[in-house]
Amino acid sequence: xxxxxxxxxxxxxxxxxxxxxRWNDEITxxxxxxxxxxxxxxxxxxxxxxxxxxxxxxxxxxGAKHLLEATDVDVVIAVGCLIKGETMHFEYICDAVSHGLMxxxxxxxxxxxxxxxxxxxxxxxxxxxQGENNHGIGWGxxxxxxxxxxxxxxxx
Length: 156
Ligand code: RBF
Fold this sequence. Notes:
Blueprint (H helix, E strand, L loop, with lengths): L15 E6 L3 H17 L7 E6 L5 H11 L4 E9 L5 H20 L3 E8 L2 H6 L7 H20 L2
Parallel strand pairs: 1-2, 1-3, 3-4
Riboflavin binds next to strand 3 and helix 3.
């Protein structure tokens, strides 16, 4: 199997936030569905999933910070899709988002999952957001694993 394997988790105690960018929303909505499918498969309850949309991927770190501070979620998944264009925006936004999300992980102490596709073409983005290759599935499972790890460390 390409990527990583996961054990069977029991996420019934977890509260999960999903912040998603509206840029390339055909792709990001499908990625969010992949995340939710995986969360449900791991036993996360529908009422324990909180969603928030932001305009673009650059806004994901701020949106994730909002979820961490204004709600009682244990873990946040930040979902976006960057597609390389004619300008340097792709490089700047990829760099800013990945650093912003990592900083939030370390500063907040709660896990923030990097659910951002960085693609050279729209075709790549489509193939990574559909069916069994929907990367949202792996991000959902990663969120459960890291959320449970965080709760265990705190003894809650
Ligand atoms: N946001 C995305 O989530 N994905 C993109 O592919 C994307 N491309 C952009 C390209 C340009 C030229 C600009 C100006 C913005 C782009 N954004 C994209 C939006 C960006 O993440 C952010 O929402 C805006 O720059 C406002 O802060």
